[in-house]
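User: Show me a protein chain along with its predicted structure.
Assistant: Here is one chain, sequence first, then structure tokens.
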Amino acid sequence: MILELAQYEGIYDRIKITESQLANLLFCDKPNHFVAIALVDERLVGLAMYNLTYHNICVNVTHGLYVENLYVSPMFHHLGIGTALLRHVAFVAKNSNASRLEWWVSKDNPDAQRFYEKIGAEVLDNWNIYKGSKACIDQLVGDVI
């Protein structure tokens, strides 16, 4: 399903995680990463991957949940599966006293944007997302490593 999502998003060639690495993240003694799956007639048709976050603790005193991936196979769109997966994550957030749910949405995915706006999520127009790649990290530490 992760590879199907990567193909759908056009990032298939960027997937680096192995099944073993994923299993270590999900099934360790104290996991921080979780997956909810959706099945139709025992066929895997969707997933929600999420993890705990603790950023900006001065404002958000309790942890949050970050939805890393929410994906439903295209032939199963408009059946409520994405809503059910996100609702499951919301229940996890509520039951763990999380202060927020967060996720990123591609600017090239208007269907997802409409879906999230429909459920009441807000776009944070006053924030830009920055990413420091390995090259950035190496530059910051002065190639010491």
